[in-house]
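Recall that a protein's primary structure is simply its ordered list of amino acids. Everything else, from secondary elements to tertiary packing, is in principle encoded there. The following example makes that idea concrete.
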Amino acid sequence: MTYSTLMVHLNLGVSNEGILRIATDLAGRFNAHVIGIAACQPLQVSCGDVIEQDRIEMNREISEAEAAFRATFENTASRVEWRSTVLPSSLAAYVAQQADAADLLIFSPEEKGLTRDFSRCVNVGELIMQVARPVLVVPTGVNQLSLENVVVGWKETREARRAISDALPLLKQAAHVTVLEITAAEQIATVRDRLKDVADWLARHGIAAETMATVSQGNDAAELDTIAQQKDAGLLVAGAYGHSRLREWMLGGVTRNLMLHPARCSFVSH
């Protein structure tokens, strides 16, 4: 298993240097084809002058994003492509649909306070719930994916199983992998047994993994984050959990807290 095709989403009107550097690194690691993608919505206004100015600005921002993407991969121009659109409907739905062409989507949520309006912002929760592909979430300001230490947040769920399976190409390149589950005290023995099964499965894929079962203190997101920091994890792998509310996809609290960590990348599957 490998990532033959990467899709990297570029935010408009801001620097994409960090996510492009990580995409370049991964393209080299996996000898992958790379698809760049950007999307935005026109402003919902009735004033003709404002509409025209917004159209000009959107086209300029898309052109700048494409130029940055192509310049990053100029030495592998035959193995990249660019996709972009302006559309009135959901940006997340568009990106999710286009990700049919990729094995892995690389995505950077816009930093809180930087987004001028929702016309340039892809809803991260909606995207991850719809995309049906693993997503590497790159925080703003992070420009390197360290695989020295990787933590897998384990739960006995479909999402966790899918995430660890989707992450196998990265886990094979990691120097040290820890599979961690936080559980109730009375479940510790059971959890240790099933973590051994996970570690044995990884070993058959050529991945040596440490297992760790710890008792929940009531805030699993904070505890997982603390252990990831102690392990100096450059990547956290986890299942993404969510629910729908008023027709909008929302991430569960633990998923959102871990995925939007400002200092490390997260690999999530739903």
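The longest strand covers residues 33-40. The first helix runs from residue 17 to 30.
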